[in-house]
């Protein structure tokens, strides 16, 4: 919490508090209710969005940034990059609003407290491993999503930017805006609070280009603090220590600080220490790898909440049939190659253009140990590991490459192993691997993992999807998406998120097209009302119903007297 007085703050920050009080309406839209908190650089209000009739957290941008057009423009651009982020554990940012002399960022309101506050409410000032597991699982999942699927880096991660809502679910706040706010402030020669340094990587301190490895460092520093009550370095010249000094093991820090309770398991100590490595290439390659090394729930669950729907679409029938799996398995190498060179490359290069400048996943890292592939299996067999790959939906094609692969696309070289999930991939020498998953219609996925000698690592990836129940009157219509048959009505299937155009075909009725929006949380419903053809199309055989209708017409036309011509 900020110990400065409002007067000191005014002096330092150029009056971020402003003369505004509860009840004030800002931007002709947001009515302020109460101050939720005050950070190093801004004040956050609980506000009512009078237009959309909902509560929001309204972050007021300090005046010093508002009056610097370049800083304001930078902040607006960075905020806009964060708008598409949609994940259950990331606070949604709704907009960037500015008028003369004032700017604000409305965002999702979290009815809870920052993790930093929850920690100090504990008697020992810190948590045990079991307590943090659900939060760290969410954190890794959200970071994997932001880094891999959305191409965004937080760069301001720390316990103050992680909130626990009233149901104790973790939500990361200020994704993508914390660092730009800080940068716009420091540009205006405003001092930036020192505590933000506690979670900054050495590279970030030196002003190097942003990289997901910065967030991995911050994740490690946050975990270190959650488990020991203090960040790795917290007194003296923190900047120097972050760059030059190795933090003591967490168990040692706990003893020094007189913290009782179960000791921290060795694999947690090692994983957190590796997150805090001075060189980025020595840190876990991804948040998913951190989750894997911490053995969170025993499964690396890379659940992505939402991705931008792709124009290309491939159906997936829930619990896909064995035949589909077998077909996918047979076709996997072809499909995979095909996709590497055609539409997949196009989609991914489009993503790349949108990525923030300096997004380090595009930059190969140095000196990363790849597994040594030994030609003599007898020597390595006992030490080899097994990867149990599963996807939802099932049947996604996978390709495994040794070592980290820096680009988002799979290399042109043949993978070490490939196939279709679910599959158990045995005999993998311990080391790091990159897995590419492809399921047509969904965004491709890349994940880096580390396999320990002899371990069996389950990896479960859920492509973002939603369920839809499709019915028709009459029943039995065949439903298509493009050229692909999804099955006959009534049916319930899972489809990629976003708008999907479906066509119902029935031999006795004209085809009908409907659009349905697939959402992850609310199952969609779509009912096709098939109507009889008004005129039978020339050359096409008549349906039973049309034949019946025609015969009725003939019968009645015989009995009905000819209509009288109207009198002129
Ligand atoms: N989305 C939100 N919902 C509810 N409260 C929030 C939200 N965002 C921030 N807050 C509250 O406002 C306080 C200040 O947030 P703010 O982001 O300005 O500062 P900070 O997180 O301490 O530092 P930083 O500037 O590094 O983000 C937080 O400590 C929290 O209590
Ligand atoms: Mg914050």
How would you describe this structure to a colleague?
The protein has 568 residues and is an alpha+beta fold. The protein folds into four domains: 6-293, Transferase(Phosphotransferase), domain 1; 309-357; 385-407 and 415-462, Sandwich (Immunoglobulin-like), CATH 2.60.40; 465-529, Immunoglobulins (Immunoglobulin-like), CATH 2.60.40. The protein is 29% helix and 25% strand. The protein is built from 16 helices and 24 strands. The strands form six sheets. A six-stranded antiparallel β-sheet has the order 1-2-3-4-6-5, covered by helices on one side. The protein has a four-stranded mixed β-sheet with strand order 10-17-11-14. Helix 8 (212-228) crosses helix 11. The N and C termini lie far apart (93 Å). The model is unreliable at 9-17, 298-369, 374-381 and 557-568 (pLDDT under 50). The structure holds adenosine-5'-triphosphate and magnesium ion. Adenosine-5'-triphosphate binds next to strand 2, strand 4 and strand 6.
For the structure shown, list the relevant keywords:
568 residues, Immunoglobulin-like, six-stranded antiparallel beta sheet, four-stranded mixed beta sheet, 25% strand, globular, disordered C terminus, binds adenosine-5'-triphosphate, binds magnesium ion
């Amino acid at each position: 919490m900020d110990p400065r007085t409002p007067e000191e703050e005014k002096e330092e920050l150029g009056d971020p508090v402003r003369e505004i009080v509860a009840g004030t309406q800002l931007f002709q839209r947001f009515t302020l209710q109460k101050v939720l908190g005050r950070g190093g650089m801004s004040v956050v209000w609980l506000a009512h969005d009078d237009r959309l009739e909902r509560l929001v957290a309204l972050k007021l941008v300090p005046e010093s940034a508002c009056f610097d057009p370049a800083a304001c423009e930078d902040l607006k651009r960075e905020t806009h990059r964060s708008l598409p982020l949609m994940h259950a554990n990331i606070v949604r940012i709704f907009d960037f609003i500015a008028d003369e002399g004032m700017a604000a960022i409305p965002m999702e309101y979290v009815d809870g407290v920052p993790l930093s506050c929850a920690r100090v409410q504990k008697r020992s000032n810190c948590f045990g491993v079991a307590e943090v597991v659900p939060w760290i699982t969410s954190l890794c999942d959200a970071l994997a999503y932001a880094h891999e699927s959305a191409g965004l880096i937080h760069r301001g991660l720390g316990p103050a930017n992680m909130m626990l809502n009233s149901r104790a679910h973790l939500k990361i706040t200020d994704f993508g805006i914390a660092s730009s706010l800080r940068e716009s402030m420091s540009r205006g020669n405003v001092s930036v609070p020192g505590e933000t340094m506690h979670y900054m990587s050495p590279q970030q301190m030196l002003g190097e280009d942003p990289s997901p490895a910065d967030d991995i460092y911050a994740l490690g520093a946050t975990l270190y603090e959650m488990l020991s009550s203090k960040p790795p370095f917290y007194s003296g010249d923190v900047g120097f220590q972050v760059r030059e000094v190795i933090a003591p093991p967490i168990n040692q820090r706990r003893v020094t600080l007189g913290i009782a309770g179960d000791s921290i398991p060795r694999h947690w100590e090692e994983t957190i220490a590796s997150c805090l490595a001075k060189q980025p290439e020595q840190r876990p390659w991804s948040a998913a790898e951190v989750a894997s090394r911490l053995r969170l729930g025993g499964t690396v669950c890379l659940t992505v909440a939402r991705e931008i729907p792709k124009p290309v679409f491939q159906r997936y029938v829930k619990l896909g049939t064995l035949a589909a799996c077998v077909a996918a398995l047979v076709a996997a190498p072809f499909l995979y190659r095909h996709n590497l060179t055609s539409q997949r490359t196009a989609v991914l290069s489009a993503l790349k253009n949108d990525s923030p400048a300096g997004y380090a996943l595009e930059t190969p890292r140095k000196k990363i140990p790849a597994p040594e592939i030994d030609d003599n299996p007898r020597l390595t067999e006992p030490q080899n590991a097994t990867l149990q790959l599963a996807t939802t939906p099932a049947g996604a094609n996978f390709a495994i490459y040794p070592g980290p692969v820096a680009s988002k696309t799979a290399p042109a070289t043949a993978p070490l192993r490939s196939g279709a999930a679910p599959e158990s991939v045995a005999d993998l020498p311990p080391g790091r691997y990159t897995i590419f998953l492809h399921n047509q219609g969904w965004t491709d996925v890349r994940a880096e993992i580390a396999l320990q000698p002899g371990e069996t690592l389950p990896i479960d990836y859920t492509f973002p999807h939603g369920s839809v129940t499709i019915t028709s009157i009459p029943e039995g219509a065949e439903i298509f998406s493009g050229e692909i048959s999804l099955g006959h009505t009534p049916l319930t299937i899972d489809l990629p998120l976003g708008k999907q155009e479906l066509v119902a075909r029935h031999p006795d009725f004209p085809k009908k097209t409907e659009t349905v929006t697939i959402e992850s949380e609310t199952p969609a419903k779509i009912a096709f009302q098939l109507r009889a053809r008004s005129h039978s199309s020339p050359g096409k055989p008549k349906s039973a119903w049309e034949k019946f209708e025609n015969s009725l017409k003939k019968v009645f036309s015989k009995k009905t007297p000819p209509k009288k011509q109207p009198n002129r």
